[in-house]
């Protein structure tokens, strides 16, 4: 442990307007679904928010020099990525930002490529803007996933395909794409004039020998077809503060997106988001390293638990994100039905793989950014379910 932080003690989240804990009031529910952490954020961030609250005036807010510097320095220091201040567009969150980007770059009826299984809101944002989803399914083997470039090439060759949404690290399959993989995707998109939205919201949550490479840092030609979406929200558990950034190096692309962000009014920040981001990027690194270590220990514990007590299920390799992808195909139950049964019979709330595309059937997604006690209880409930049904 790099420095002592307490991730073990349960923080009571009931009655805090928590989406994860307060959406369903059945007694004793173990919620391991929506992607936020059960941990308190870094002490330095809490302190900065206290200070901001003590000021007592919460008027309209702009992005300050300190905000840009924190973002730029963090990416330079941690990801070896040089961002120009002019490239940055602040938005309230990534999903509203995605919606604005799609409006800026497409007209209804056009097509967007995603690599399934993938974050479910991509489907909604695409459909809500009158666009069509084109699936480029990932290939599953040996408890991990790789990309299907041949299929991607065919999909991108369709002139109606204008944009690809790339998820790196990938929710829910847990891959952190390598520079080679990213370049192959980039080359295909370059060849066919497809813009890449790189949703890199999980980029700080990467384990062991795996290394996050910002798509836009791969070289100028890739950079100029890219829109990168980042936020401290996942890594520092700040989703409720609503602060995110779109990083768009190409001037023409940025102007179009900027206009859509203005029209859709998704660029107006709040004072806590601004203070939270500055504190996270300037002072949160030690806490981040500790939380990553705890989460990865949770993952290892989960692998061992499954091997020992429920060998019917298998954990996919987790390279990044705190979303663990469990192969339940041997149970031979449709994932949506399995999710419902676990909720009804065991009061365990995990996400059915089918939420992330049809190829997610046979899998369940577990949010393991929780104390070991909660994780153990969740796993015990799954084990009890399996004993009962198999
Ligand atoms: C890949 C990905 N993008 C975006 C989001 C949501 O981002 P935001 O809350 O900033 O809209 C999530 C949340 O789980 C996610 O996994």
Structure keywords:
single chain; 390 residues; 7-stranded mixed beta sheet; 4-stranded antiparallel beta sheet; 13 helices; 15 strands; 41% helix
What's the layout of helices and strands?
Elements: H1 19-22, E1 30-31, H2 43-55, H3 65-79, E2 88-91, H4 94-105, E3 111-114, H5 120-128, E4 132-135, E5 139-141, E6 144-146, H6 149-156, E7 161-167, H7 179-191, E8 195-199, H8 220-223, E9 226-230, E10 244-247, H9 251-263, H10 271-283, H11 285-309, E11 314-315, E12 323-327, H12 335-346, E13 348-349, E14 351-352, E15 363-367, H13 372-389
Parallel strand pairs: 1-13, 3-4, 3-7, 7-8, 8-9
Antiparallel strand pairs: 2-10, 5-6, 9-10, 11-12, 12-15, 14-15
Please describe what this structure looks like:
This protein is α/β, with parallel strands linked by helices and 390 residues long. The chain folds into two domains: 19-43 and 285-385, Aspartate Aminotransferase, domain 1 (Alpha-Beta Complex), CATH 3.90.1150.10; 57-282, Type I PLP-dependent aspartate aminotransferase-like (Major domain) (Aspartate Aminotransferase, domain 2), CATH 3.40.640.10. Helix content is 41%, strand content 15%. The protein contains 13 helices and 15 strands. The chain has helices spanning 19-22, 43-55, 65-79, 94-105, 120-128, 149-156, 179-191, 220-223, 251-263, 271-283, 285-309, 335-346, 372-389, and strands at 30-31, 88-91, 111-114, 132-135, 139-141, 144-146, 161-167, 195-199, 226-230, 244-247, 314-315, 323-327, 348-349, 351-352, 363-367. It has a seven-stranded mixed beta sheet, with helices on both faces. Strand 11 (314-315) and strand 12 (323-327) form a beta hairpin. Helix 4 crosses helix 9 (251-263), helix 6 (149-156) packs parallel to helix 7 (179-191) and helix 11 (285-309) runs parallel beside helix 13 (372-389). It is globular, with a radius of gyration of 21 Å. 47% of the residues are buried. The mean pLDDT is 97. The site of pyridoxal-5'-phosphate has 13 residues, from helix 4.
